[in-house]
Specification:
Elements: E1 14-18, H1 23-34, E2 38-43, H2 46-56, E3 60-64, H3 73-81, E4 89-92, H4 107-135, E5 138-143, H5 156-176, E6 181-188, H6 197-200, H7 203-211, H8 225-232, E7 243-246
Parallel strand pairs: 1-2, 1-4, 2-3, 4-5, 5-6, 6-7
Helix pairs in contact: 1-8, 3-4, 4-5
């Protein structure tokens, strides 16, 4: 029998986290490092990534890059693998929400949202799959959303991509799980991050969202630690193709 105390141990694993400069991406990077992983954070803001590395220490490295640049994915994957080797774990936490109403969606806003939220998670994962196959072990964690299954005002582009993330996750599982690579998604509720600043800057709106949960509160960044470690570790070896909602029961009501 496996010692349950080792199920969440990531010692010897290498993790890549996009969107690691702030919010839930940064929290994911610090949580995985605390569990023993060597972590490479990816984002556009080099200074914020430097702060993340200083916080974590020697087991962190960073790559400042725009993941929306599809033509640079191969070079980006090489840069990510340079510090510690090809990642065993890939977390796609980077996200964009333009909050454009349906009548006001621009081609640029649509394309940028698609590139960051849906296209990059696929092609960056695809780049690392051969190394995962060679090891017979890998973990891909996409970031879904309340809008994977719900429609919100001003969220048509974002919601379309997050709906796509749900199906992308299932398709990744179908394609790659026979090789020991699990693919799951985590669906945050309302957490205080840069992406949700517009929500939390309005106390009444934040309170309404909290009231719609089963727990009666919005998320705290530490609420993500356990679910993320579960999906990134041996504890979830027989879990794949799933969307785990970490939303205080928002989607249950």
């Amino acid at each position: 029998m496996t010692d349950p105390r080792t199920l969440f141990d990531l010692t010897g694993r290498v993790a890549c986290v996009t969107g690691a400069s702030s919010g839930l991406g940064r929290r994911a990077a610090t949580a995985l490092a605390a569990a023993g992983a060597q972590v490479v954070g990816v984002a556009r803001r080099a200074e914020a990534l430097d702060e993340m590395c200083a916080q974590i220490g020697k087991n962190a490295a960073r790559v400042a890059a725009d993941i929306a640049d599809r033509a640079a994915i191969t070079a980006l994957a090489s840069d990510i693998a340079a510090p510690f080797g090809a990642p065993d774990i890939v977390i796609h936490a980077a996200g964009l929400n333009t909050r454009q109403e349906a009548d006001d969606v621009t081609p640029e806003g649509w394309d940028n949202t698609l590139a960051i939220n849906l296209t990059a998670p696929f092609f960056l994962s695809q780049a690392f799959v051969p190394a995962m196959k060679a090891k017979g072990w890998g973990r891909i964690v996409n970031f879904a959303s309340l809008q994977t299954t719900r429609a919100f005002p001003g969220g048509i582009a974002y919601g379309a991509t997050k709906g796509g993330v749900g199906q992308l996750t299932r398709a990744m599982a179908q394609a790659w799980s026979p090789h020991g690579i699990t693919a799951n998604a985590i669906g945050p509720g309302f957490f205080p991050t840069e992406l949700t600043a517009a929500v939390f800057d309005d106390p009444e709106r934040a309170a309404r969202n909290a009231a719609q949960t089963c727990t009666g509160r919005n998320g705290r960044v530490e609420d993500m630690d356990g679910p993320l470690l579960f999906l990134c570790s041996e504890a979830s070896a027989y879990v794949t193709g799933q969307v785990l909602m970490v939303d205080g029961g928002f989607t249950a009501k």
